[in-house]
Amino acid sequence: MKRSLRHKSIIHAVSGRQEVSVVDLARLTGASAVTIRRDLVELEAHGVLSRTHGGARQAFKRGSPLPFSVRLGSDQGSKAMLAEVAADLVQDGEAVIIDNGTTCFEVARQLAGRPITALALSLHAAAALASQPGTYVTVPGGTVETDSLAMTAAGIDAVRDVRADVAIVGACSASATHGLTSTTYEDVQLKRAILRSASRVVLVADASKLSRSSAFRFGGPEDITHLVTTPDAPDELLQMFRGEGVSVLLVQPDRRPDAS
Prior knowledge:
The longest helix has 13 residues, at about 35-45. Strand 12 (about 225-230), helix 10 and strand 13 form a beta-alpha-beta unit. The strands form 3 sheets. Strands 6-5-4-7-10-12-13-14 form an 8-stranded mixed β-sheet, with helices on both faces. It has a 3-stranded antiparallel β-sheet with strand order 1-3-2. Strands 8-9-11 form a 3-stranded antiparallel β-sheet, with helices on one face. With about 260 residues, it is α/β, with parallel strands linked by helices. The chain has helices spanning about 5-15, 20-30, 35-45, 70-75, 75-90, 100-110, 125-130, 150-160, 185-195, 235-245; strands at about 20, 50, 55-60, 95-100, 115-120, 135-140, 165-170, 175, 180, 200-205, 215-220, 225-230, 245-250, 255-260. It folds into 2 domains: about 5-60, Orthogonal Bundle (Arc Repressor Mutant, subunit A); about 70-260, Rossmann fold (3-Layer(aba) Sandwich).
């Protein structure tokens, strides 16, 4: 089992109230006890679980973000398809804001080498964009967050100084009824600034994010122009986005979007 999938399985296993033993986690993942103990040390450092004598238990509260590596390794195929369609909405010569997060990182990979001007709000995205010649890449100055490499606090001022043609935005949750939400207050402030600084806002989110909510709200369907999502999204929720004038693009398995 891949490391990222193993970490995700461990996190899910300890998501209840009961302690889970190293032996049970080894049996679940097919990894050795030594590997599991090493995983537990790493996951505890990220604050998503607490190690106990012989095992682990849940430590994170509702809405706490998972480690970047775990999120990046989850649903990679779906994220790649979403990213390809989102990148096609960016025209050559445009100024683009790339939000932090793993799906936006995939969009940055797709945009690498394109003749655009990009403000990247994480070093992950900046490195992806700058990996090929042709793209003018800038980043905010200031502190960088551990693990996600996001520049949230510095990014707010940087975004306010930009007039972007398009912004590629992610969300922890994107409910048509409860709004677009994130797990931290700081990230919400950044995303609000992004919404005010771009002519077009492309929200990239798979169907699972459309039926849940997180702690802090930064906007609603009326604040975005495009939604790129997967075809398993409930139609009644998509109709609510369309009712606010949002162009909805459903990414099909052959990667050709069904726009409406």
